[in-house]
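Example 4.3 (complexes with small molecules)
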Amino acid sequence: MNNMRMYDIIMKKRDGQELSTEEIGYFIDGYTKGVIPDYQVSALLMAIFFQKMSKRETADLTMAMVHSGEIIDLSSIKGIKVDKHSTGGVGDTTTLVLAPIVAAAGAPVAKMSGRGLGHTGGTIDKLESFEGFSVQMTIEQFIHNVNTVKAAIGAQTADLAPADKKLYALRDVTATVDNLSLIASSIMSKKIASGADAIVLDVKMGSGAFMKDAQSAFELAQEMVDIGNNLGRATIAVITEMDQPLGYAVGNALEVKEAIDTLLGKGPEDLTEVCLTLGSHMLVLGGKAEDFEQGKQILDEVIRSGKGIQKLKEIIQAQGGNPDFVDDPSLMPQAAIIKPVAADQDGYVKGIKADDIGIAALVLGAGRETKDSEIDLAVGVVIHKKIGDFVSKGEAIATIYANDIEKFAEAQKIIKNAYTMTQDLIQKSSLIKGIVTQNGVTKL
Ligand code: URA
Ligand code: CA
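Answer. The structure with uracil bound is encoded below.
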């Protein structure tokens, strides 16, 4: 490896040739250690962006990033550890629902989550709405919790796929994020380093997602499914529509409340459907259900019997949080200003720019503008009208939860502009667009 030169690797990719396993390993190792400078890696990323990578190169890149840091060993957890990953989206509350229902159905959930950057906090931020809840624990404690409670939520440490952290930051400032191989290897390296045996991916498509159209969403899904299976992790992907926020709530404590409602069987229809779909696939891969239909029945029963909500309390309690908040969500942080946003005209909702609803929540303080910003758990937006719904002039299309009157006014303007209305009846489209497995694509 010592006679390898970064210059030659850049030139090779620039000229459209495939990089060898050793070359990919060399550049990832050198970049992680700080031996290869940003400017050379930037040039290589741009070459990859234009020339693309083969499936073999993408798998090699993934494994090189996995090996750039710590690989979490979850082998002392009994059973098949199925992880789940959603590719972005606005107001995505699925993990808060999925972890308890899948665990209650007997499959171990060992979830490494991140803190959020963007519209709202990540899963960990949201869970901090429960007084005392903490992800500070040793890996032994984490494993112990999964073995006893069946689920634990931990924080991705700085040493998990550190090459990806550096590369992602560099891609962000060099216009090289949008490449299938780079996105797929980035996501999959973190899942594999987290110790997952099997992976269910939720690939979002639409205005509120990374992938705006069906074709690129299916391609990204196939790429990740192939990486996972090639590396010995049973992986499937569900393609879900994100042309409007999922559920109604966007904001940390507000989404926790929505997750609680969903666990009680009275949550939004779309959020419930996505959770039951992803959850049933997790049960199938985890060997807890024979097929998708049986998985759904099991999860329906978990919710109906109250085992799901009970499991959430157990998870919260095991990590130092106050489980009473589950029975009384008004104990969570509350906003001082709670006011509706009224419709300016009659009509049917034609579209809701999900990104803009996310930005309204961010403006209110629900998310982080930079990685050191403080987030306000109480604030956010609850929309009341979704695509296809009829709205009368003056009726509330949303409610804003704010702690600052100026931010309220700004959010109100953004929300009004996020909605487009029409006089024509609108057909609601289905939420689950397809499934991608090792054997190909099923469009729904
Ligand atoms: N999320 C990631 O973790 N990596 C990407 O490259 C894109 C989205
Ligand atoms: Ca939501």
